[in-house]
Structure formats: C-alpha cells, structure tokens
Amino acid sequence: HTIVAKGWCNNADYAYYLEVINGKIQFMWNTTGSCGSGNNIFRSDSVVIYPYACTHVAVTYDPAGATIYINGVMVPGSQLTGGVGSIHNSADPMLIGTYKSINSTYVSFVDGEIDELRLWNYALSPAEINARMNMPLTGNEPGLIAYYDMEEPGTGPGFTLLNQCVATMTLLNGVTTGTNASPSHIPVCTLVGIEQEGISVIPPGIYPNPNKGRFMLVAGTASPGSPVFVEIRNVMSQIVYKGMLTRPETDITIGTDSGSGMYILELRNDRNEMAGLARFVIH
Q1: pLDDT attached to residue 194
Q2: Considering only CA atoms, which of 52, 36, 42, 6 is closest in space to residue 21?
Q3: Burial of 238 (0-12, 13-18, 19+ CB in 10 A)
C-alpha cells in the first residue's frame, strides 16, 4: 500500500517508493533507474502501523543508509536487499497514495488516509523530527522541498493539491485523480471509529496524555457486564501490559521502566473483537 512513489519501471526512470507492507514500513530506492537492477530495500523489523490509529512516519536517507522513525522514535529495521548509493534522479511525476504499474495503471493504493506529506533535501535529525511532527510548517524551513498539508476541501479528480513550500510553490503543485468519492482530504489526523458487528469502536480516553507510565483509562466501549481486555504495546510491537477492565474508569500503571515514547492501547471484548484503540506517550 503505497504512501509515496517516484518513477516508473517501464521507462527505466525509477527512484523510490515508501509503502506499508503487512503493517511494516518499507522504503525502496533505486540507484540506476531500472527496476531490474539497483534496487535497495529497507524494512522495519516489527509491525508499526495499526488499524484505525493515526501514525507519524518519517524515513531519512543519507550515505549511511535508511532510518525509520515512528511517532518520532527510531525503530529497528533491516536491509533486505542491496546497499547504499545515490538515489536515481527520476523525471517521472511523484505519486501520493498509489503506484504506477508497468502497463500505466494505478495500483497498490494506500489503505487509509494521508494527512500531510513533507519532503526535505537532507536527512532530518531525531530532534528535528520530534520538534515538527505535531505542528504545521511555515513553509520557509531550510531544506524543505515540498509540503502538502492536504487542507483543500473536496473529493474526486481534477482539483489542485497545493504545495505549501515557499521555495518551490506552484512548481510542485499536484492534481488529484480517482473516482468522485476519492481522494478526499482530511483537516487533521485523528483516530477513526468503526462499527464491528454492532460494537462501536471508539478511541478510549487516556488522561493525562502524555504521562509518566500511570494514567486513567476511560473506556465505555462494550455492553454493560461484558468483560473488556486491554493490551498495550510499544512501537516495536512488544507487549508491556495485559489486563482486564472491571469498571469503565480504571487506573493503569505500566511504569517508566518501559521507556519513553509512543504506545498503542487496544481494547477487545470477550469475543476477541476490537472495541477500542488509542495511542499515548510516556515521557
């Protein structure tokens, strides 16, 4: 499921793509432009993308290789093929949310919503990623090449996707394609509620957030009298807490020994159906 791609295999002008593959983040770059050679693939070792949760993804690349950050935290990854080298300078249009196949059809659509896309001409530091990930840019930041905040209202093909980077402005504006129902723009990245067999899946309340490993969980997501199970994972998908909720408001402590960073909290009912999903930060 492609987040962003640059290049086309059919004309030996391929540069890179960033995608979600079975919950892992994968970055592929090409040094020759040909999909038959020069491919290099780096992938997160663990699942880092969860359904119905808003996630900030950052990938940096420099002569040392690729690095993946999830919600500002570097996650372990592995080089699956190739090595390092200069990314091919493709003249083919950049695509957001899809991939262009050899027969020129659009495939591998992203299964979700993209709130913002930012491209830079250097590898951001961890401090820069964390300082900027939860706020809009001014468009004047040094090294910024393109900035799409996805704030334009409307659905369907043919409307302009504005580039908010002052240095490149209308030179890098885009245009939407698709059906009348998509793509649509969202003003802010939020948790998305779903309905599953009559059970409303809503973001449970976590107070305070961020916290120091102790918080109040407010979860009214299951029928009265039904047990609700809670599981908390870190960004490397390791379970740090499991338990059962006995009342709608529960005090939970997982401790600061779990480390600072982002955590995913998932609620399930007695039929193992998802009943709630949220993220929080320990600092």
Answers
A1: 35
A2: 42
A3: exposed
